[in-house]
Design brief:
With 187 residues, the protein is an alpha/beta fold. The chain has 5 helices and 6 strands; from the N terminus they run βαββαβαβαβα. The structure holds guanosine-5'-triphosphate (GTP) and magnesium ion.
C-alpha cells in the first residue's frame, strides 16, 4: 500500500539534501521520515558521517546526507576535501531541494548563517528545519522560531520545526516531498 505519492513507482527521482552542523540530527531525521531505526547511522560522537551518503527511499527519491560542517576536530585538509566533495555535488544539475538543519534551541551560529547564504546562492529550493524541537516548551519554540527567521532573514514558509524524537512535522515534511515530486512530473 502506498500512502504517500513518494511511495508510488518512480517517475522522477529527486534528492532531498540535508546540510547542517555535526550532531544536529541529520541521520535521525532520515530514520524518522523513513520509519527505520538505523538506515542512517546516528551517533553521539560528532563528525562520524564523513562522506556524501545517498539513501534511496521507496525507489522514488534520495536523502543525501552531507558531511557535518563545522566539526572542530577535523583537520584543515579534511575539511577542504569535504567542501570540494559538497561543491562538486551541488554544481552537478539534479532535481533537488536543500534542507538546512539547525538546532531549534540555539540562535544560528555564524557558520550556520554563512552556510545558509551559500546554500541559497546555489539557486536550489531551500528550507530550514529546526531540529530537536521536543526539547523546548511551546512558548520557547515560538520565540526561537522568531529568532531563527530574524537571524537568517527568512520568511515563515522557509522554516519547519521538527523532532525526530516525537515525529513533530514528520507528515508535513513528507507532504512537501510529495508536492515536489508532483511538481516535477508536470514539467
Ligand atoms: P553527524 O553525522 O555527526 O553529522 O550528525 P547528525 O547530524 O547525523 O546527528 P545524529 O542524527 O547522529 O544525532 C546526534 C544526536 O542528537 C543523537 O544522540 C540523536 O539521538 C540526537 N537527536 C537527533 N535528533 C533529535 C531530536 O529531534 N530530539 C532529540 N531529543 N534528540 C535528537
Ligand atoms: Mg549523521
Amino acid at each position: 500500500m502506498a500512502a504517500w505519492k513518494s511511495q508510488y513507482p518512480p517517475e522522477l527521482t529527486i534528492d532531498i539534501v540535508l546540510a547542517g552542523r555535526s550532531n544536529v540530527g541529520k541521520s535521525s531525521l532520515i530514520n524518522r521520515l523513513v520509519n527505520r531505526k538505523a538506515l542512517a547511522r546516528t551517533s553521539s560522537s560528532p563528525g562520524k558521517t564523513r562522506t556524501l551518503n545517498f539513501y534511496s527511499v521507496n525507489d522514488a527519491w534520495y536523502f543525501v546526507d552531507l558531511p557535518g560542517y563545522g566539526y572542530a576536530k577535523v583537520s584543515h585538509s579534511e575539511r577542504d576535501a569535504f567542501k570540494k566533495m559538497v561543491d562538486t555535488y551541488l554544481e552537478t544539475p539534479r532535481p533537488r531541494e536543500i534542507w538546512q538543519l539547525i538546532d531549534a534551541r540555539h540562535k544560528p551560529t555564524d557558520l550556520d548563517c554563512q552556510m545558509s547564504a551559500y546554500l541559497r546562492s546555489v539557486g536550489i529550493p531551500y528550507l530550514i528545519v529546526a531540529t530537536k524541537a521536543d526539547k523546548l516548551s511551546k512558548n520557547e519554540l515560538a520565540k526561537q522560531k522568531r529568532v531563527i527567521l530574524r537571524e537568517l532573514e527568512l520568511d515563515e514558509s522557509q522554516l519547519m520545526v521538527f523532532s525526530a524524537l516525537n515525529g513533530m512535522n514528520k507528515d508535513a515534511l513528507l507532504e512537501r516531498i510529495d508536492r515536489y515530486i508532483s511538481a516535477g512530473q508536470e514539467i
